[in-house]
Design goal:
Blueprint (H helix, E strand, L loop, with lengths): L1 H19 L6 H28 L1 H20 L9 H7 L1
Helix pairs in contact: 1-2, 2-3
Length: 92
Amino acid sequence: MFACRLFYNVMILLRTTFKLRKSVGTPKDELVMNIAEIALFCESCASLVFILCSHKPCKDEILKVIQKCRRENAADNHLEIPATRAQENGSQ
C-alpha cells in the first residue's frame, strides 16, 4: 500500500516540476501519471475491501446479506411462464 502512494506522490512531484518549468512533458510522462492514478485507485479499493472483510461488524452484516440473497434466490429459482391467449389460440 505504501508503494502505491509513494509512486503516486513521486509522479505528482514530477508533474509539478513540469508545470513550474512551463513544460508540458511527453506523452510517456502522461501515461506514467495515468498508471500512477490507476495504481492509487486500485490500492484504495483493495484497502476498503480489506477493511470490510476484517472488521467484525461489517463482515457479519455482509454475510447476512449474502445468506438472505441466497435464500430468496433458492425460493425463486424457477419461473413459471403463464400461457397467453395468443399461445392458446395458436395451438388450436
